[in-house]
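Box 3.1 — From sequence to structure: GNAT family N-acetyltransferase
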Amino acid sequence: MIDSLSTANSAELQALEAQANSGISAQHLRDALTDVNSRVIGYRQQDAPIGDIFDGNRLLGYAIVVRLPFESELQAIGVLPHKQGQGVGGKLLGEVVAWARQWQSERLLLEVRANNQRAIRLYQHYGFNEDGRRRDYYPAARGAAGREDALLMSRLL
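Predicted structure (token representation):
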């Protein structure tokens, strides 16, 4: 089930981001929940089994999309690590595309770490193409030395 999140979901969203580690700050999450030009959507799967326990109605993934003057931008997408590769990101991305179309955006933009091949494949599957690269844009992930490039991607709507 996908729904829009509000400030009432702030603690749950922060807890998910702490595990998903998409790189969005707590302040950015709070701001997105109150910005009239942003939509924060969440994915819940009721009674989803994990071994001998159940997720219940737990938030498993989220995405932030922002309306710009002629375009929309996917600012973040995060999925619990044990749910990655199970279609949660694709369902969220489909909803992001739907919001961008509803806003009558011409294009949907995003940026992604150049070494995040799983995410890049997902975006390509949804019709995104690489537009450019920002050299040394991201700090290296999880304590590694150096910096990482960002790929700039978009798709026409």
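Summary of the box: The mean pLDDT is 90.
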